[in-house]
Structure formats: C-alpha cells, structure tokens
Design a protein that fits this description.
With about 220 residues, the protein is an all-alpha fold. Among the domains are: about 50-120; about 150-220, no CATH class. The protein has 7 helices and no strands. The chain has helices at about 35-80, 85-95, 100-115, 120-130, 150-160, 165-180, 185-205. The protein is elongated, with a radius of gyration of 27 Å.
C-alpha cells in the first residue's frame, strides 16, 4: 500500500442505506410464534454479536486513516522544525498503533533537536536502531524501519549524555554505512564522522569506559 502524497485528500465513501418496506405483520417477542423464549434469546444474542462485529470492522479503517493523517501532520511539523507539535502527534500515533522504528526515530529527532532532551532521544533512537534499513523511504506512511542516519543521531545523543563509549560505537556504525554506499556522503562528511568517533573513543578511554565493537546488520 503506497503512501498519500502531501496534498492528497483523504476521502471516505458512504454507502446509501436501502429502506425496505414490508407490510407483513411481525410477531412481537412473547407472541405465540412457534419460537421458544430460549431460542429467541439466542437469536437476539447472535444478532447483537453480528452487529458489534460489523461496527468494529467498519470502524477499524476509519481509525487507521485517522492516525495516518496525524502521522502525516507530524512529518510536516518536523519539516517546519516545529518539534513540540510533532512530539504531541507522534506520541498519540505511537500510543494507538503498532510501534514502529520509523515513529521512534522521528520522536528521537524531535527530543534531541527540539526539546533538547538527550535522554529521551536516546531511548527512542535506541528502539529505532534495532530496525535500521538502507531501503528506508522518507515520507512513506507505511515505512516501519528507520534510516541509517539513526545511528548518527543516537551517537549525538550519547555524546551529549557523556556516554562516550556508546557514542563512539554508533559513530562507528554510521561510518560503516557511509563507507558501504558511496552516494550517502562525501569524503569530507566521512572524515568528520571518523574524527567524531575517534574523539569519543579517546574520551571513553580517558574516563575508563570500554568501547563496544561495531556490529552492523541492515534489515532489507
């Protein structure tokens, strides 16, 4: 299922109800219609279950559309760097739909560069980093993975938290992504990331921390 374009409107078609005219008299419950009270109660129960099932089935797509719209709005908020508004929307989506690395990645960015909470950013980016994919599609409402840049942002969050061992680890992971795809970044960018990784690794050694070996696995 492909995503909605930015300016694409969400339309909901309604089926017209058909009115059925029936002049045949219908027996009331309790009339001697040949059906026992027990059987009638069973019929009523089955009809109620059927009605509830139809209601749930028809309500599900509406809820799905609702949170897709909210997710799109959050993306637009982030595009305008209005991170506070984006956080509110993303938390609502996360609380009412299946958790995805994409939403966690976006929440991490908002907390890191908007609210300035490196701790919250590290929490969400860590969850997103479990499902990094080189095939990530930005603006795709059906995307469930996180982009390779998640490793860089997570490194920044840990650097702010002065957890230099983990910062060095994720700078190293991001550098591995860059080296595996020549189109991702220039030689200058790779040099800067490499310098950041070395700086954090040195800081980790000075503070007695132990660096974690880089182990990169891309989800295709």
């Amino acid at each position: 299922m492909k995503t909605l374009n930015k300016n694409e409107e969400v339309s909901v078609s309604m089926k017209a109800a058909l009115n059925r005219t029936d002049t045949t008299p219908r027996p009331k419950i309790g009339d001697n219609d040949g059906i026992s009270d027990k059987a009638m109660n069973l019929i009523i129960t089955l009809l109620m279950i059927l009605t509830m099932g139809i209601s749930i089935a028809t309500a599900a797509p509406t809820e799905d559309v609702k949170y897709r719209i909210i997710l799109r709005q959050a993306m637009l908020d982030m595009d305008r760097m209005d991170y506070d508004k984006a956080i509110t929307k993303l938390l609502e989506v996360r609380a009412n739909t299946e958790e995805t690395a994409n939403v966690n990645h976006m929440l991490g960015l908002c907390y890191l560069y908007g609210e300035g909470s490196a701790e919250k950013a590290a929490f969400y980016l860590n969850r997103a980093a479990e499902h990094i994919s080189a095939e990530y599609e930005e603006w795709d409402l059906d995307e469930t993975n996180a982009p390779v840049q998640t490793a860089y942002h997570l490194a920044k969050a840990y650097e702010e938290l002065q957890d230099f061992a983990k910062a060095a680890k994720f700078y190293g992971q991001f550098l591995t992504y860059l080296e595996s795809d020549a189109q991702l970044a220039s030689a200058r960018t790779k040099e800067i990331i490499s310098r950041n990784a070395s700086k954090c690794e040195q800081a980790a050694l000075e503070t007695g921390e132990t660096t974690i070996p880089v182990n990169v696995v891309l989800n295709k």
